[in-house]
Design goal:
The protein is mainly alpha-helical and 136 residues long. It is 60% helix and 0% strand. The protein has one domain: TerB-like (Orthogonal Bundle), CATH 1.10.3680.
């Protein structure tokens, strides 16, 4: 994946156009899980998630339905990933932005990102490449 694929305009940071309703819910679920996996769903992560939902024109009910209730068992979470590579690239990039939102990358966030990257069809090295590009 090139840096050009990783970059996204400021106008749509977080939002992904072209997802089905089911994919939007799955996308928000993955962002929420990434944000919560370290046990600290902080204000910057909440703002990021809420902004994404607004940008994708989700109603409050749709937004609420996207957030899992109770204990999350990662191995039971299956993403409804889009076929289009550009949408999957945006999805991965935004998950990594969620990880970076609070400025701390925990091992659990990293492993969860790797798990979801695999479901999106990306090799582990891609996550590392995106993380490195964000540090620049």
């Amino acid at each position: 994946m090139s840096e050009e694929q990783v970059e996204q305009s400021d106008e749509s940071w977080g939002a992904i156009e072209g997802l089905s309703a089911s994919q939007k819910r799955s996308y928000l679920t993955s962002l929420y899980i990434i944000a919560c996996v370290d046990g600290d769903f902080d204000e910057s992560e909440q703002l990021f998630l809420f902004t994404v939902a607004q940008q994708m024109d989700l109603s409050p009910d749709e937004f609420e339905a996207s957030l899992p209730d109770g204990e999350i068992v990662l191995s039971e979470v299956a993403l409804d990933a889009p076929e289009e590579e550009e949408l999957r690239v945006a999805w991965l990039r935004n998950m990594i932005l969620m990880v970076a939102a609070d400025g701390v990358l925990t091992p659990s966030e990293y492993q969860t990102c790797m798990y979801f990257a695999d479901q999106l069809g990306f090799a582990p090295a891609v996550v590392d490449d995106v993380l490195m590009s964000l540090k620049k």
